[in-house]
Structures are given as C-alpha cells and as structure tokens.
Design goal:
Elements: H1 3-16, E1 32-33, H2 37-43, E2 52-55, E3 59-63, E4 70-80, H3 88-111, E5 117-130, E6 134-146
Parallel strand pairs: 1-2
Antiparallel strand pairs: 2-4, 3-4, 4-6, 5-6
Length: 167
C-alpha cells in the first residue's frame, strides 16, 4: 500500500461526510487538510468557518520476517469545528461524534477491502486550544498491510538486462 491510498481515502471521507462536504475547487468549502500543525496554523490564521478534517501524514513501520512481513501505517486525524456560538464542551462533543463516524467508515472500508486490516485500538483526545480558541478531537490509529518485498530487477544496475543499467 502507498501513503496516497490513505490520504485519498481521508479526502473522500471529508467530501462525503455531511458535516464536512469538502470541495477542492471551492475555497469556502475546503474542509480537508493534509499538512502538519505548523502549516495548519499558518493556513488558517483567522480560524475556520466550517467543520474540517485534518490528516497528518502516516508513519510506516515494517515488522515480521521475510514471507510474513507487514507494514503498519500509523496516523492521526483531527476533526475541527468552528467556534460560532458553541462553548468548548459543545465543540468537543461535535468533533468527537464526527471522528467516531469516520472511524466507523474506516472499519467498514476494511470490511469490504478498500483499506487493509484495521489495527484494533485508538488513542483519542482533545486538540487545542489552537487558533482563536479552536478545539477539536484527535484520533491516532493504525492500519496494517502485507509487505511485498519482491526485488524489481529494472530498478537495479547490477540486475538490469541492459548492459548500461538503464531501465
């Protein structure tokens, strides 16, 4: 599996969830961010105007041996909602509800084979305050996939059939 698979799936979640309705082509409907905390804070200095989903790039770890290797993709996503007239508790409650719905969709996607195995368990909690007393709910979790350790001879000079080593 490649990292883009996870990023693309989270973009899909942001597009399809009724509270998010992300649209890349409309800045007012932009509700998906695939960036780090500093970039997020710089990109939204005046806060947010609608609920959004923020995905940190997954970390990858290979485990196992030879024919039983797997790759674990650990990542964190955060749901943020605009403050509006909500207090901190209401904001967190709304963010957690949306986060739970996304976790449920991840598990459904694993069930039908759109994503590889879900690693049971999450680490969740409040995010914030950040910009303009903005709070959210963060979920750290992982998915696991088999690792294909096949060597591609075309990518190696000493294994390439071309004497110049060009693929």
């Amino acid at each position: 599996m490649v990292l883009d698979t996870i990023v693309d799936r989270f973009r899909f979640y942001a597009e399809m969830h009724k509270a998010l309705r992300h649209d890349d082509s409309d800045k007012k409907k932009h509700a998906f961010f695939h960036i780090d905390v500093q970039e997020f804070q710089q990109s939204a200095p005046s806060g947010i105007s609608k609920a959004c989903l923020w995905l940190q790039t997954p970390e990858v770890e290979k485990t196992g041996a030879y024919d039983g290797m797997s790759e674990g993709f650990d990542f964190t996503f955060v749901v943020l909602v605009p403050k509006g007239n909500k207090n901190k508790v209401q904001m967190i409650r709304e963010c957690k509800a949306i986060s739970d719905q996304i976790v449920n969709m991840i598990m459904a996607d694993v069930e039908v084979g759109l994503l590889p195995s879900f690693v049971p368990g999450t680490n969740e909690g409040i995010v914030g305050p950040i910009i303009d007393q903005l709070y959210g709910w963060g979920v750290s979790m992982g998915i696991e996939d088999g690792y294909d350790g096949t060597v591609d001879p075309q990518q190696w000079l000493h294994l390439s059939p071309d004497p110049e080593g060009q693929p």
